[in-house]
Structure formats: C-alpha cells, structure tokens
C-alpha cells in the first residue's frame, strides 16, 4: 500500500495533468495554465558521472520531491587525458602541447545519457516526479567551454531528449537551453527560471557576457512578469560565491564572480524588477554549501550549491586524508558562506556526494522555507531555515540594524579582503612546500654528515 506521502505525490501529479499542470516559458513563448496543488518539496543536483555508482537516488526518492532539477554535468560527456608533465602528449605545464579535455562524439554522448536514464533508481524517480534541468560544461560537451564550442547545437538536442522535452517545445528552436516554469495556484506559485551559462558565454578571462543578449532580454521579461510567491533561479555555476578570488594562483573555479559586470547586471535586474522571494540554486564545484549576499536587492540573496550526485572533492583522496580537505575548506576565506553550528563540518562545506532539498511550509504563519544540502542517506549536512517574509524587501527594513549587525560579513565580497587574508590559502600552501623542502634538504644533509662520520670511523678502525 502506498504511503500518505506517495498518495499525495499522485494527487499532485494527476492534478497537474488534469489541469494542464505547467506554466512553461521558453524563449519568447509561454503557455500559462495554473496548477491546482502547491509544490512544497523540490530536489536538485549536479555532477553525475554515468560510469560511477549512484546510490544517492534512493535518498532523493525517500525525500519524495514533486520536482527534481538537473543543475548541469548531468553526464560527463568529454574525456580527460591523464596529467603528464613529459612525453609525447603533455597536458600540464607551460610546455603542454595537447588539451587535457577532449569532446566525445554524438553517439558516445547519447550512450552516456542512456546509462543515466536507464538507471533503475533514477527511472523510479522519473515515474513519480517532474524532471526539469539545464546543463553545465561536461554535458555541454567540453570542460569550461563557452560559446566557441562547435558541438553545442547537436548536444542541445541530446539534453532535451534526456529531459523528455516535447518535440514541439520552443526550447528546441532557440539558441540555448534556458527555460522557465511556474508551478502552483495563485498565492502559492513558484517560478523556476533555469539559465544557460554556456551557449552564449564569452571566454573566462574576458569579463564579457555569460547569458548573451537574447537570454538577457528573455530574463528581464521573466523577472518583470507576473509576481510569484517564490522565484528560484537555477545557474549551473555559483552566483554568490567567488572563491577564485581567494584560491588563485593555485586554481580557479568558474562562477559569476569571474564576470563581475554580468553579476552586477543580474543583481540590478532583480532589484529593478521589485521581485520578492528570489534565491539561487547552483552546482559545478563538487561540494555543497550555502552562501548569502545581503547588499544587492534589499533582502538577503541565498545560493544553495549542491555538487555532486557522484562527484565530490573528498572522493579523489583516501579517507585517511579527508581531514586535510576539510581543514583546507575551513582555511579558505569565504565572505559569503553561511556558517552555522548545525553544519556537519566546521567549514560548513560538504565534500561527499550530496543533493539539494528545498521545502516550503505553505500553512505556516509566516510561510517557512527550508534550504538544505543532504548526504547520500538523505540527512542534512548544512541548512538554512527562514520565513519567506525574510526575502521581502519591505520586511528587511524593520530588521535592517539587527541583520546588518549579525550578517555584515555577507556584504563584503571576497575581492575586497585584505591581501594577507585573501591569499592565505596560497601563503599556507607555499609555506608548507617551503618547510617540506627545507626538511627534505635537512634530512639529506644530516644523512650525508652521518655517512661521512661513519666513513671516517671505518677508516680509523
């Protein structure tokens, strides 16, 4: 016999089917039919290697979401050459002669999508849950790629086939996979806006555009359109965090922070739209965290990052060394990360496989929001519980003094940190390398002295 939660799921699903179910806006077209039942549980995730075990689907099914959102890297469609400093194919160093990543063929990409789609647990999720999504670089076709990638049109068709997008969908005719969905009855509507941060994106070092002119026009229309209780904006790369500002020159991650003018334009558009209840979800970075920015739109903007479903930073090192990864995560300065005592680790990041969970209690007074990153067993590892009224510009004025006193760190961007704080990870790394090098030289010198002393003793004897 089905549980009460499962029966509720079927009521929601069939209510959606009977009533027309979905408001979908793709490009300049939209079909607007309201749903009768409110959406109260949304799950999302990113970074699913089709060749890796995927037990996390069982935890997502147990969460029983009404909607699941793919946030990108839904497959790993490109191939990665090994690190090689020397030899015929050198993939690292100033002398490298071949790229580290190479794209797969159309047939190979299709086969990889099919592996995910036919995974038994994911198939169960598809039967009972509305699946939507966007892409990131590895399912776009090539690591860190933007508008220059030649296979994007062919791979767009593959992604939309994977998401079961209708063949007559306007999304199949536009340049890019961006889309919007409005779910729920009037007064309890959730607008989901999924961005395409790949198809139109300029090179990473350009500070050019991420979305391109046509997508910006579409996004402005969506944000300035009819109001909704909640507006969820999905970006495959992080919007709030800019850890590249504090991890260079060791490594750099993609984010909106790498395109500061675009991010400022996004914040300005949200503010000008006077839209309340906006927050972001994102993926890409192979760990989970929640970030917050208080000084953009008149109320706190949250970004819930979940990454990945199979890929995670702690999986690339032996379990005995996980403490090092967690220490470095704590050491890396982040002005935007939400730090809470309820976090499983002190850094409030989570480097094991995870998924994002959003719960809305529409019957609470005021309406309550719960943002969480959950582990492979479905247990929360970091989370934020707030009233929806906190995401209203007019409501923050009354608590501005308290909020700014408590969360002032969420108004200081990583790029504005003092240099000794900003680069403390690099300072720690190079100092550690220097100490280890000196220790190695010292041990070698001591060994030479001991050898010479033994040699002299042998000669005297």
UniProtKB/TrEMBL annotation:
UniProtKB keywords: Membrane, Transmembrane, Transmembrane helix
Residue ranges annotated for the PhoD-like phosphatase metallophosphatase domain, each copy included: 45-296
UniProt-listed SUPFAM superfamilies: Metallo-dependent phosphatases
Bilayer-crossing regions: 425-451
Cited PANTHER family: CALCINEURIN-LIKE METALLO-PHOSPHOESTERASE SUPERFAMILY PROTEIN
Name of the protein in its database record: PhoD-like phosphatase metallophosphatase domain-containing protein
Organism: Dipteronia dyeriana
């Amino acid at each position: 016999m089905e549980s009460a939660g499962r029966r509720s799921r079927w009521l929601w699903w069939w209510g959606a089917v009977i009533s027309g179910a979905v408001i979908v806006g793709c490009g300049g077209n939209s079909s607007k039919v309201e749903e009768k039942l409110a959406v109260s549980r949304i799950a999302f995730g990113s970074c699913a290697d089709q060749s890796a075990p995927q037990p996390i689907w069982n935890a997502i099914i147990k969460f029983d979401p009404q909607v699941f959102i793919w946030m990108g890297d839904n497959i790993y469609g490109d191939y990665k050459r090994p690190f090689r400093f020397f030899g015929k194919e050198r993939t690292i160093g100033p002398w490298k002669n071949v790229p580290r990543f190479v794209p797969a063929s159309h047939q190979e990409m299709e086969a990889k999508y099919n592996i995910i789609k036919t995974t038994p647990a994911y198939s169960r999720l598809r039967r009972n849950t509305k699946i939507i999504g966007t892409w990131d670089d590895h399912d776009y076709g090539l690591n860190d790629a933007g508008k220059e990638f030649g296979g994007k049109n062919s791979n767009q068709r593959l992604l939309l086939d994977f998401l079961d997008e209708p063949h007559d969908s306007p999304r199949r005719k536009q340049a890019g996979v961006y889309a919007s969905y409005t779910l729920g009855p009037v007064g309890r509507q959730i607008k989901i806006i999924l961005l395409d941060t790949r198809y139109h994106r300029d090179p990473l070092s350009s500070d050019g555009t991420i979305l391109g002119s046509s997508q910006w026009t579409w996004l402005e229309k969506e944000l300035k359109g009819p109001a909704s209780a909640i507006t969820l904006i999905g970006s495959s790369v992080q919007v709030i965090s800019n850890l590249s500002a504090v991890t260079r020159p060791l490594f750099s991650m993609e984010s909106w922070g790498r395109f500061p003018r675009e991010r400022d334009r996004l914040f300005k558009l949200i503010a000008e739209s006077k839209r309340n209840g906006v927050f972001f979800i994102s993926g890409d970075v192979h760990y989970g965290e929640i970030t917050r920015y208080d000084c953009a739109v008149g109320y706190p903007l949250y970004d819930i990052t979940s990454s990945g479903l199979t890929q995670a930073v702690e999986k690339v090192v032996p379990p005995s060394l996980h403490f090092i990864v967690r220490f470095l995560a704590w050491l890396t300065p982040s002005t935007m990360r939400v730090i809470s005592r309820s976090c499983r680790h002190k850094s409030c990041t989570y480097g094991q496989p995870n998924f994002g969970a959003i719960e809305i209690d529409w019957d609470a007074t005021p309406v309550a929001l719960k943002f969480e990153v959950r582990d492979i067993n479905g247990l929360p590892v970091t989370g934020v519980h707030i009233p929806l009224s906190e995401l209203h510009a007019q409501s923050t004025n009354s608590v501005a003094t308290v909020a700014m006193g408590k969360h002032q760190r969420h108004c200081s961007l990583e790029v504005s940190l003092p240099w000794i704080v900003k680069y403390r990870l690099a300072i720690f790394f190079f100092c550690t390398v220097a100490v280890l090098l000196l220790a190695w030289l010292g041990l070698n010198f001591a060994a030479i002295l001991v050898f010479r002393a033994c040699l002299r003793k042998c000669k005297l004897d």
